[in-house]
Design goal:
- The structure is a homodimer.
- Helices cover 41% and strands 16% of the residues of chain A.
- In chain A, helix 5 links the parallel strand 2 and strand 3.
- The interface between A and B is large, with 77 and 77 residues.
- Strand 12 of chain A pairs antiparallel with strand 1 of chain B.
- Chain A binds a DNA duplex through helix 2 and helix 4.
Chain lengths: 352, 352
DNA sequence: GACTCATCCGACAAGGTTGTCAAACGTGGC
DNA sequence: GCCACGTTTGACAACCTTGTCGGATGAGTC
């Protein structure tokens, strides 16, 4: 790492305010305010004088001061609480919300919580202290009751990805149970009777729902129920790899795998490759990921649509901001099955 | 998509202010202010009364109003202008900056520009109107001179990934030329004499630098210079795939490829797979990507370290905010070569 | 010329907060 | 009981803006 530096320092110039512009244009500050906000009732001559002064001084309105005084108090900023800004799911959500917010000149404050409940609360508090107009929250904690005060104070809040607990509020979810169920049906359709389950932390509601979907499909297809084939609480690629290896080396290993999450799927693939079984053991993952169709075999997935989820959540939030005071709304988005190869591998002919 | 809704609406409760707390605690608002800010000179009895009132009213300080009045004017928010919040490079940068900012209770406003110069400017203006304390900008425009006013007004600005043009300012870059040069040397070491170049939009400075590195290495190793082997201005996976196919189907195709960017690398892989040449034609990509070591062959890359870049940039920004007024600093981070297989494929014995 | 009326404009207060300053209070020494 | 001194406290102004309101101006009508 190379750092170059050269010595210079210029004095800071104060930023111009309405008062400065007014002085230069020879009008009152209220008139400048009128021009800045495009209000009527200013003669063209004064508009021109003010506009000239604004450019000359490079005046920037102070939206914080404006929001403080303005009747509706809007700051034109919304807050987003996400699992991890660096993970593709969170960042796709963020990006979709950004695109929707952008149409309304609204900016986004975003933060990661990393499955830390305390962080979720401090982040919400920090946003609230900045008086964000609204919140979009992918909750990690076991109770979002603390958000009731925010919502009642007029900060609309939409939960995404995971439902809120301890409070009734707007949320946009994915059909986790249905998607997981479909995955197992898909594998059963290919002839598998013995499907392993690889799951995320059980405290996460979505993981619970996906396991419920797996369970339901097993019942529906009469697949044998063997707790030894269920690996739970896998939260990293490494954990998933290790668990997959363990599963496949057991006495009576599954002929197919359902991986309930992104990183878990990747861990499973790494394990399959290590054991040389990627062409033998079927695999369906929940949640699509980049490169899934460049791997060999190409990886079949149950895809969520985080961009759509973000868009729907943002649109709902803005409806609320536009005055929609109807009761809490719960939207469930469907999943899409993408067969690419790995999920269509048939069981070895000897398998029961 | 299923939406459920039920009809309820509660009236909004006004948010408590210093005045409300003061009234409840039976003190002046200034005393409450002192307690909130942990200033000395308040008797324990009053501190207790104020604290009780704060909890009872669920008081949230208004940091915007506070920043307006406070001497240093700090809002404890910084702005980040990035290429695309949804792409892994941008989001890794964002996340690293977040972690550094988090230690100081600073929040982040972030936005995507998508190679749109106009958007870069409107985003910076929007941040400036919110009076962010500092800016971290991955510039796309051809001139960042417009930022001089911001910087002179006391908003420290650090450029990342790409150097600013038209202004001398802090920046944190990656050694693009050196990394590209290393890639070609690596391929030449494996015996290749004929290395194709797949590059991003030539208006992007980093793309220029990487091409310069490619060129330099070709000269150093005496590799033949054939413009027909250079595909420029590839900005999507599809464009890269098409260009790669074209290159490899030409009369005298290269035996190795250097892909100057993430998406371009992925496009090249897709093309190689389509042509069945992934085991025959060597490939080194610039910038690592998830799954690179699960593909077959595993993909050799020149890795940048966006997390480190973000951390270094954030630290520099906070140094500036802490009063460091020394001259503009330019930091260049090294790249790392990660040989995984694709870059070590040897040319077919018949190749010149 | 007196009147109405609409338009344009600025004085003033307010939004939630903090910096300044001086008043009030308590303590200790004589 | 008086004074000096340090601590605690609140009144007030200010930060940058916008909402309210009333005054000034000019045109149009009788």
């Amino acid at each position: 790492m190379v750092t170059q530096s050269d010595p210079v320092a210029a004095p800071y110039r104060q930023r111009a305010t309405l008062r400065d512009v007014a002085a230069m244009a020879g009008v009152s500050i209220k008139t400048v305010s009128r021009v800045v906000n495009g209000e009527s009732g200013v003669t063209p001559a004064k508009v021109a004088a003010v506009t000239r002064a604004i450019h000359q001084l490079d005046y920037r309105p102070n939206v914080s001061a404006s929001a403080l005084r303005r009747a509706n108090r809007r700051t034109a900023v919304i807050g987003m609480v996400l699992e991890d800004l660096a993970n593709p799911f969170s960042s796709a959500l963020l990006r979709a919300v950004e695109d929707t917010a952008n149409e309304r000149q609204v900016l986004i404050l975003a933060g990661s919580v990393d499955e830390d409940q305390g962080r979720e609360r401090t982040l919400v508090r920090a946003f609230s202290e900045r008086r964000v107009d609204g919140l979009i929250v992918a909750p990690v904690g076991e109770d979002q009751g603390y958000l009731r005060a925010e919502i009642e104070a007029g900060t609309p809040t939409v939960f995404v990805d995971r439902p809120p607990q301890g409070i009734r509020a707007d949320c946009v979810l994915c059909d986790n149970e249905g998607g997981a169920r479909t995955a197992v049906h898909h594998l059963a359709d290919a002839g598998h009777r013995h499907v392993g389950y690889l799951g995320d932390l059980r405290i996460i509601p979505t993981a619970q729902q996906r396991f419920a979907g797996y369970q339901r499909a097993c019942l529906e297809r009469g697949l044998p129920w063997r707790p030894a084939d269920h690996a739970h609480d896998l939260h990293t690629v490494e954990e998933a790899t290790a668990a997959t290896v363990r599963l496949l080396r057991s006495a009576d290993p599954p002929t197919a795998l359902f991986a309930s999450q992104n990183l878990v799927t990747i861990g499973a693939i790494a394990a399959l490759q290590r054991l040389g079984l990627e062409g033998t053991v079927a695999l369906v993952g929940f949640d699509d990921f980049p490169m899934a169709d460049l791997l060999k075999p190409r990886v079949s997935v149950i895809a969520q649509d985080p961009a759509r989820m973000g868009r729907v959540a943002a649109e709902l939030l803005f409806q609320r901001l536009d005055g929609d005071r109807s009761g809490p709304r719960r939207t469930v988005l469907p999943t899409t099955t993408i067969p690419r190869g790995s999920g269509e591998i048939r069981p070895p002919s000897g398998a029961r």
